[in-house]
Amino acid sequence: MLRYHPTIVMLAVVVAYAICFTAIKIGLAYAPPLLFGALRALIGGGAVLVTLWFLKLPLWPERKLWPWILVVAVSATTINYAAMFLSPGRAGAGIASVLGNMQPLFIVIMATIFLGERLLKINLLALILSIIGIILISSPAFFEPTTDALFGSILALVASASAAVGSILMKYLNQPSAVLQVTAWQFIVGSVPLFIFSNAIELPDYSLMMTSEFIAVLLLLALFGTAFGSVAWYSLIQRHEVGQLSLGLFLVPVFGLGIALMFGEKLGGIEILGAIIIMIAIWKQRQLKVG
């Protein structure tokens, strides 16, 4: 499927990533953020291991892959999930969904610097427009009476940057046959610090409520957003230029913003203008195709 229908897979990845921040905000009513993120990572990684077992593939990675797994685990799981789960409660799901899914902005820059991929004029224009959109969307946070909104916006951008680092490392690793193994173990290993920090910082002041709604949200995030989304994305970037491919991820914040609005999120005119500018950036990429 990934080889023959990359555009369809890319759209599925966009949907998987777009639901995350709204789903996270719903789940935060039942669980503290770091513990929530740790559970999502552990279950997602476990689901990929089950997939390996079902496909009768080796569960344990080669020794040479473990340094890569550890670095990706810290960047794409521990730091990414800590920032991702801490931001929606402060900045709101809509703003967090936009700023927390600006991974392509960082990927294009990193791919140009570290992977030697070309930065086309149309890419540069999209980056400039996206930066303008980001500034507009996050600007209301500077006028909040507390620092929570600004801190939440910064956390969302940290989540984007750390996820981008993970994508660049996976592309540089260039091991298509080991994508499932690396993905599974980076989530499992990356969840350990999250559990440790949660136990030290959050518990026992926060409690975990295992309601049916929380379990449904957790499984949606872990199985669709983490297991499927990450495996599909990492598999795609093994076969295509990560900078060009990542431009499709500019759709994620737009989809995520729409989902947040459906769940009652309120946005002001300046945030809407920022989202429109980001959509213009996406439209400018219409000539680029994946496949």
Q: Tell me the count of domains.
A: 1
By DSSP (H or I, 4+ residues per run), the number of helices equals 14
Helix content: over 70%
Question: Which percent range describes the beta-strand content?
Answer: under 5%
Mean pLDDT figure: 83
Overall number of strands: 0
* Secondary-structure element string: HHHHHHHHHHHHHH
CA-based shape: globular
Protein structure class: mainly alpha
Outline the low-pLDDT stretches.
286-291
Radius of gyration: 18 Å
The rounded distance between the terminal residues' Cα atoms is 12 Å
Largest sheet: none
Secondary structure blueprint with pairings:
Blueprint: H1 6-18, H2 20-27, H3 33-54, H4 66-86, H5 88-91, H6 93-99, H7 103-114, H8 121-138, H9 148-173, H10 179-201, H11 212-239, H12 242-246, H13 251-262, H14 269-284
Helix pairs in contact: 1-11, 1-13, 2-6, 2-11, 3-4, 3-10, 3-11, 4-9, 4-10, 6-9, 6-13, 7-9, 8-14, 10-11, 13-14
Description:
- The protein is mostly helical and 291 residues long.
- It has one domain (6-284).
- 74% of the residues lie in helices and 0% in strands.
- Helix 2 packs antiparallel against helix 11 (212-239) and helix 3 (33-54) packs across helix 4 (66-86).
- It is globular and about 50 Å long.
